[in-house]
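Sanity check

After download, print the first record. It should look like this:
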Amino acid sequence: GCRAEAAEHKASSGDLGGWQACAMCGQTFTGHMGLGLAEAWWSTVQDLDEEHEERRCAGIVLAEALAAMGRFAESEAKCRELRAVQQRMPEPDSVNAMYTSQMLGKVLLCQEKYVEAEVMIREVLSKQRKHLGGEDQDTLATLVSLGNVYLEQGKLDDALTTFKNVRAIQERVLGAEHVDTLSSTMDIGNALQNQSKFQES
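Expected structure tokens:
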């Protein structure tokens, strides 16, 4: 509707933000609104060359919106499509390419495809450590995803070690009271709880 028209108008002048957030208040679109705009954006760019920057941006936004609505199989397909294009480009390890692979790992995890998810997440983590560093927030987010994969597979010691490593870095870089550090503390508690249940069984 009118939001899609406004976003398309802004995009014509090089501002792609209108597809993702309200121009008035800056709030990110979520739920059905977010998905509807993501689909509208994709419809305007899908016929562009596969390597076109706006087409790739619209693709990952659509993948995110699909995942947020629980449509994980569709999100996975879009991530795989984008990743195949990015792997053919001159910089296959760009930040955007790593983000797409990170997203793919997450949607595989959400579908309980744990072996595939672990392989993908490990691949992304290796590249992020090389290009972004071990303390970068994206790297740490991927490390948390790896911990969750371990947790879901019953690799409780590995999960606990991973979450503790993340929290140690966050405490040093962000501080003990930062929301990300506190979230990692909750991850550790969850892993310990699962470990206790396993030992009791």
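If your output differs, re-run the checksum step. Summary of this record's structure: The mean pLDDT is 86.
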